[in-house]
Amino acid sequence: MTQQPTIEDLARAADDAGAALADDVTELTSSLAPRRIVDEAIDAVKARGVGLARDASDVVKTHPIATGAAVAAVGLALYAGNRISKAELDLGDDLQAWSDYDDAALAPPDDSNVAEDARALVKENPVVAILAGIAAGAALALLFPTSTAEKRSLGALARRITNR
């Protein structure tokens, strides 16, 4: 016959679970700290930057004319873009009669409410909204490294899924 756990045993188990959860939240918070994410990104760029610079120097050494032409094309495009951005065009009102372009058609209606439109879209297509949320969550999850808490809690499940 098994012995029923006492209230004290249950309270102790709840306290242990709460402490473990607090530790996981603290670890997750520290791993998601913006400064830490930036530092890890900078370290990754530095580590991969050396190889990229080595590869780039090899390409420049083997194809100097093509590299020079590419640099000249980028410089010309930047120069032209700068000149075009500063250009002014004054057509006056002479072309008004010839224009079939209506600016008012591009303006959103005054009574549009984005939140209500989004709510209606989700209400009409809940499966699409769920799939879009899952896709957005998966894309966001790819940006962050796996934490030790995730490995500890979901590692066995991940191994079972990937072994099938």
Description:
This protein is mostly helical. The protein has 6 helices and no strands. It has helices at residues 7-31, 34-62, 64-86, 114-124, 126-143, 148-163. Helix 4 (114-124) crosses helix 5 (126-143). It is extended.
Condensed summary:
The chain is mainly alpha-helical. It has six helices and no strands.
Q: Point out poorly predicted stretches.
A: none
Biggest beta-sheet profile: none
- What pattern of helices and strands is seen along the backbone? HHHHHH
Number of strands: 0
Structural class based on helices, strands and sheet pairing:
mainly alpha
The rounded Rg comes to 29 Å
Helix content estimate:
over 70%
Overall 3D shape: extended
Distance between the termini: 40 Å
Q: Number of helical segments?
A: 6
The amount of beta strand, in percent, is under 5%
Query: If you average the pLDDT, what whole number results?
Result: 76
